[in-house]
């Protein structure tokens, strides 16, 4: 759950931007049928099995449109939900419910889809010491929501943004003139409390990263035999991350390597939404 400060400073502006995208002037359809405020209630129904995520964001959409809106939930983030399950009832001004419905569902469906997909991928790592990580391959302006969904689904977050840590990728290495040069420059620039990660595509790069004193070495798009050779070269001198087109369909081949981390951009860029609907809106007698 997002804390109150994060909610107000970082979440609310993003939700408001999404609402403004959907309502540039007025909600014409709603104003046609509901010219005045009227209390109403609608039912949130799950239409597909999965992991629910984003309930706080879902409710926040309606509260930003109507201070008195509230949602009665029967589930919590991270719970497994099933098709046909009633998950909540939304109470508030009917106009706010109508105007906020699509935005609220967009967040909830997207976040729940990521949590569900992450949960399925993470299941392959159960019983191992390897952690599943996400990446920065997220939807613009939705990273905070999508990374929260990964954590809810059982994954862990890699860098939130470029300020979080040093990751020297192929283009950084090219710009610096080589792996050793890039690591040396990073050590000279950042505080000793920051770890330095190096993305390696060849065994030669792995050797250079170890000799340069990298804290984390990412084995990028290597086949299993090459990764096993790289792990021997590293020999416990650095943490190891494996990456490169990792999906639900192929992660099983990596589980026996014994690496520290496996990262997957698919957690956020390829997860399908979870089908959820808001139905049965009607006037509420108070």
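^ Assign residues to that structure.
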């Amino acid at each position: 759950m997002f804390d109150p400060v994060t909610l107000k400073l970082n979440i609310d502006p993003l939700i408001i931007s999404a609402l403004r995208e959907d309502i540039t002037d007025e909600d014409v359809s709603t104003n046609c049928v509901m010219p005045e405020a009227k209390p109403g209630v609608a039912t949130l129904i799950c239409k597909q099995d999965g992991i629910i995520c984003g309930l706080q964001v879902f409710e926040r959409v309606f509260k930003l449109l109507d201070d008195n809106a509230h949602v009665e939930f029967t589930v919590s983030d991270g719970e497994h939900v099933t098709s046909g399950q009633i998950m909540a009832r939304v109470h508030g001004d009917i106009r706010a419910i109508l105007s906020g419905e699509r935005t609220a569902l967009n967040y909830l469906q997207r976040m729940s889809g990521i949590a569900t997909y992450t949960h399925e991928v993470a299941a392959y790592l159960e019983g191992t010491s390897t952690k599943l990580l996400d990446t920065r391959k997220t939807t613009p302006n939705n990273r905070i929501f999508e990374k929260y969904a990964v954590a809810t689904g059982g994954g862990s977050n890699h860098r939130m943004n470029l300020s979080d840590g040093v990751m020297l990728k192929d283009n950084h290495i090219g710009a610096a003139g080589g792996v050793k040069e890039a690591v040396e420059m990073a050590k000279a620039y950042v505080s000793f409390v920051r770890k330095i990660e190096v993305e390696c595509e060849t065994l030669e790069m792995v050797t250079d990263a170890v000799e340069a004193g990298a804290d984390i070495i990412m084995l990028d798009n290597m086949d299993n035999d090459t990764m096993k050779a790289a792990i021997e070269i590293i020999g416990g001198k650095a943490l190891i991350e494996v990456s490169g087109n990792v999906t639900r369909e192929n992660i099983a081949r990596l589980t026996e390597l014994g690496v520290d981390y496996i990262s997957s951009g698919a957690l956020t860029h390829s997860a399908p939404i979870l089908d959820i609907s808001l139905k049965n809106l009607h006037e509420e007698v108070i």
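Residues 94-122 form the longest helix (29 residues).
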